[in-house]
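Reading a protein record of the kind used here takes only a little practice. The record below shows the convention in full:
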Amino acid sequence: MRYGRDALANIPRTVHGGQAWKMGDIEDYSHNLNPFGPPECLAEILRASADGTGHYPDDNCTELKAEISRTLSLKEQNIVIGAGSSEIIRNFPNAFLERGDRAMICDPSFAEYSQQCRVAGAETVYSRLTEEEDFRMNTRDIASAKNIKALYICNPNNPTGRIEPRDKILETVRECGDRGILVFLDETLLDLVKGHENISCMKYASEYDNLIVAGSLTKSFAIPGIRVGYCVSSPHLAEEINKVRITWNVGYIEQNAARLLLSEHTDHVSRAASLMAEESRYMHSELEKMGFPVGKISDSFFCFCSLKELGIKGSEFQRRMLRDRIMVRDCASFGRRFEYYIRFSVKDRERNDMFLRAAENSMKHDG
């Protein structure tokens, strides 16, 4: 006898980057975190927050919502706080999708979207992004899709690094609204993009009754071990998401740390965004000079490229780079057609030069 829901029978666990911490002294380029690491004040913030752990956390996250509200010029009823954006991604299909509903997801994109739709019992269909079209969002697929209840957009898209302009996204949101389609827009990587203020749709979320925009502190403050994410939407959509949210989902320490980071240390994120924009150009130029097939320059701070012309699969290149204590992301987990692709972020100049030396070695030697 097998116990468990039929919908879960063939759902594997998703694969993610950022696992080099398990391997010791490895420089991890497989994740997309702020290269400065967490702000130096974080340890003191966490110690000071410990005094509040003797009581239940505020289930409404009132003070943290107030800070996000102030930053985005939205009302608190437009905001839902989650234990990382992962919880927001999980709550979306649980709030809005039912068995038989269909969600459209770009391919490739973040694996959790499909995973959580399937956990909720919904079906997924895919808009195939291609190298020939620079892995841009395919509005033709969206316009021609039938019987779609939800559309997922990741901006910048993970793993491709491509960024869609605000006008294109909001036009898609309006067209989807006319067809009764919800749009889940994931902006969790956008804060580390220079000029993100002119790209983000966060401040516009309350103007649409079919748009939910997700954000997170994980990448921008380099705190993946502290789970704080959020989403903004119309009050009605926020209320529905709150119905499936776990009570006390974000602890007192996390709430207080997030509030202080957002209120006093956003310059830490801005400095990183400026650095990464410069280093992205530098890395692209240097890789091209050595004959590395880096492709078109990334819109963001992480690169997605095929090593097929070198005849090296992503898994093999990952193995070679580890000889020089550097981890890249093997992108085979995004689907078989990406087995020759890798993804890597950028950091500061000293570490990027180490990456470049390792990449040149890995192109030449297969020992």
Summary: Residues 266-289 form the longest helix (24 residues). The chain is about 35% helix and 15% strand.
